[in-house]
Amino acid sequence: MRTSLLLLFCASIFLTSCSEYQKLLKSDDAGKKYAAADSLYNAGKYKKALKLMEQIVPAYRGKPQAQRLMYIYANTFYELGDHFLAGYQFERFALSYPQSDSIEIATFKSAKSYYELSPRYSLDQEETVKGLEKLQDFINKFPNSSKRQEANTLVAELRDKLEVKDLEIAKQMLKTAQTFGSYKPAIESFDNFITDHPGSKYRKEAFFGRFNAAYQFAINSIPSLVDERLVDAKEYYNSFMKYYSESDLKDDADEIISDINKRLQEKEPTS
User: Fold this and answer.
1) In its keyword annotation, does this UniProt entry include Plastid (predicted)?
2) Interior angle at CA 250, CA 247 and CA 253, nearest 5
3) What is the widest separation between alpha-carbon atoms in the chain?
4) By Cβ atoms counted within 10 A, which residue in 80, 102, 160, 263 is the most buried?
């Protein structure tokens, strides 16, 4: 009996609360909506708070309460996982209130929202590039921020994703060349990777890929161009060995250079 009464009491409070919230949504009292939205936000009831904030944001533009309202409005999207709107709203907040005490965290959360929008490497990386720019901008603006280390970690993750994307493109070009015979774009793609990502952990693969592409380009050329292109491939082997003579790809590289040397020796005139 006591348990039933308690459940009935709780249900009554819940229904009353819901009824009051629905009335408030229909109300024209912006002040009450602001107070309720702030209370709900502080209680972590973000969906309910958002519905109220969406109704009053236009009414508070230019007013003293607008700064806090716009911050919690942006952060509500962030807490709900709507990173597209969170990034946009935090960006607006930073532009509107550059002297705010919350400018640092707003700038960071805006940048992190764009980071969260970054897709897997096989998809278009426009959002990844944007996230990288936003995070780097945050680091430059707030070099002593407590969020700097996290921002650097996120930057490293996004850069890695772009490197993987570029490397996979080069590898795919090599596979395509093996079918259609157009090796030059593959060589250039590996070459561009090496130039564009000087500190990448994937440079070893790019150096080997370029050498392998040049080798295949040579042996699939018309007879009059084979020797010249084999010599070019040897230069790429030398570049690979200069940096990665102790790598796990050395045996594969040595196997290819052995074939190159054999082919060139066969063309040398005997005395």
Assistant:
1) no
2) 145
3) 112
4) 102
CA distance 211 to 223: 20
Q: pLDDT (tens digit, 9 = 90+) per residue, 128-149?
A: 999 999 999 999 999 999 999 9
State phi, psi for 175 to the nearest 5 degrees.
-60, -40
CB 178 within 8 A of CB 162: no
Tokens 């720019």: give the residue: 133
- In 3D space, the residue among 103, 108, 120 whose CA is nearest the CA of residue 147 turns out to be 108
Domain boundaries in the chain? 29-117
Instruction: Specify the residue for token string 């999207």.
Output: 77
Domain 29-117 indexed as CATH 1.25.40.10: yes
Mean pLDDT, rounded, for 198-207: 96
Q: In 3D, which of 130, 163, 126, 134 has the Cα closest to residue 151?
A: 134
